[in-house]
Amino acid sequence: MIEVRFKLAYADFALDVDLQFPARGITALFGPSGSGKTTLLRCIAGLERATNGLLRVHDEVWQDGASFLPTHQRPLGYVFQEASLFPHLSVRRNLEYGMRRIPPVERKVQPEQVVDLMGLSKLIERDPAYLSGGERQRVAIGRALLTSPRLLMMDEPLSALDFASRQEILPYLERLHGELEIPVIYVSHALDEVARLADHVVMLEQGRVIASGASNEILTRLDLPTAHLDNAGSVIEAAVATHDEAYHLTRLDFSGGCLWVSKVEHDVGSVVRARVLARDVSIATAVPQGSSITNILAARITEIQEEGQDRVNLRLAIGGEHILLSRITRRSRDQLGLAVGMEIFAQVKSVALIA
Amino acid sequence: MYVQSWHAMALSCLAKQNNIMESAFSAADLSAVWLAFKLATVVTVILLLIGTPIAWCLARSRSWWKGPVSAVVALPIVLPPTVLGFYLLVAMGPNGPLGHLTQLLGIGLLPFTFAGLVLASVFYSLPFVVQPLQNAFEAIPERVLETAATLRASVLDTFFSVVLPLAKPGFLTASVLGFAHTVGEFGVVLMIGGNIPNHTRVVSVQIYDHVEAMEYAQAHWLSAGMLLFAFLVLLPLYSFSSKGRRK
Description:
The structure holds two protein chains of two kinds.
Chain A: E1 2-9, E2 14-21, E3 26-30, H1 37-45, E4 52-57, E5 60-63, E6 76-79, H2 91-99, H3 111-117, H4 133-145, E7 151-155, H5 163-179, E8 184-188, H6 191-197, E9 200-205, E10 208-214, H7 215-219, E11 233-244, E12 249-254, E13 257-262, E14 271-277, E15 281-284, E16 295-307, E17 311-318, E18 322-329, H8 330-336, E19 343-348, E20 352-353
Parallel strand pairs in A: 3-8, 3-9, 6-7, 7-8
Antiparallel strand pairs in A: 1-2, 1-4, 4-5, 9-10, 11-12, 11-14, 12-13, 14-20, 15-19, 16-17, 16-19, 17-18
Chain B: H1 2-15, H2 20-23, H3 27-60, H4 66-78, H5 81-92, H6 97-104, H7 114-138, H8 142-150, H9 155-166, H10 168-184, H11 187-193, H12 203-212, H13 216-246
Helix pairs in contact in B: 3-7, 3-10, 3-12, 4-7, 5-11, 7-10, 7-11, 8-9, 10-13, 12-13
């Protein structure tokens, strides 16, 4: 468990946070720019000094009223927005910089492991000046990992990169998630990134926490600002069940039913994350006949919220534990007579496999 | 009158051209050259040691005292060396605060000694070391220092493993400028050091003495030597820094 209590006041900005979140998996600090995500992260790292603060990580006090552990004594890894490699050191020396500064017995993460995990074998002898933005960020992540941190912090590590570099790095971040048992705090203002990576979401607004909880629970809440975004949606974790070679499709099974998606490379049995956007889910009151849409799931409406003047957002429960969002017109809601508690059928037009 | 006398000197200088090749360097000349280099070396080492923390504080501070301190450090650039020399002479004299201190410590009085020359030169050349260092430190982004801290480097460790290598060109410039400026100083040396052979008579004073004594040949040899020295010192510095920019 990570326990954070910070109060910090600047001339034009105040941070007031009292928060607990699990010290495992990826926790996203999510919110618009200026909401205090980066400031909160910097406080946790000790780069910003909140005078009124308490910080406890795995039962270790990093900061309280009496004590303040300086950054270099906190067992953390930090990845900045821009890679900040040391320009006077080669990639190898950059990677070793932090590792050399921890006692050998604490070196749980091995260089070979990081080189393999982050795909650095071809870059290792190069000068940082000759790396692309994506490569530089991979080195920076590797460098942070090699300090065997008890907490890895990432401050929008993808935001300074172009679309292609971002797509290049995301799989590495997912591997990180799967292969190392280091808790990660990930700052982002991009909903897609958070949906793809996070297990736990802390939502910030104007220096305050407005919601904190399991990722899909938070991202599907209709009372939070995320519900109004164009790419609002939910995440369903499902297992690869079977491949249809003839039509190049893959069936994913989860407790609420199954989804057909374009064929994926994953082996049968592996667990993947599928993201379904609210705008891609339409509603039918009876099992649709003669429809081209193959993904039809039985669901129950648990909440309805108006969205602008013409549309409504629906929160749907599927099976015991899964949630879908649907965005339809207000007229459709009235014509179908939709209300909370109704059993309906959700037609999913498109599913994006995100991990 | 003054102009006329210089004119006359210049004319006689031309007349004596023939003698130049005959003389080269006397023992007193070599002693003056050696003394100037010894002084410049000691002063440069001291300046790097005290200039580095001053430059670091000036580069990283956002405090109100940054302005006044910068101005004090830069004073020797603007002040005539004789003004600085005069005040230092008064301060180091038997009734000055520094004089009291050195007498109390049993060192005696500093004016007209090599140590006094070193102290005066340190003040005089301070801005030529502090300013290049400060520029070099300011060019290092805060982010780089924060990165080092997140990689377990203490402040001192960061200074030696990150700041020093990144500021290397700044240290080179500072050393060369501090050294060359100390070799080239005249006014302060004359005020504080007097003109004592083997102790405080450095090469710039020696040249002046030669000219005073109408020994233009010796003055020529020493001056040309200094000219060549100055060029040879500055050449690699400017070649190096322009190469650095291209990269």
